Amino acid sequence: MTTIEPLLPLRPLGLTGLRATPVAVGTSALGGMARAYGFEVDEEVAIATIEAALASPVNFIDTAN
Fold first, then answer.
1. Least crowded by CB within 10 Å, which of 13, 24, 34, 65?
2. Is the alpha carbon torsion for 35, 25, 63, 45 positive or negative?
3. Which spans in 1-65 are helix H?
């Protein structure tokens, strides 16, 4: 099994041939959808969230709204 961290093995992503971590970072609340959830996220927090995700072993960032 290929791993990027001992606790985050890469798994097949459907039939795409891509492999993703089993943990994803959800980002719908970082943009306009935050208002639908009853709050707002300022740009600095949104950027810091993405930067933290990129620095982590997670390789799956869900950008769907």
1. 65
2. positive
3. 33-36, 43-55
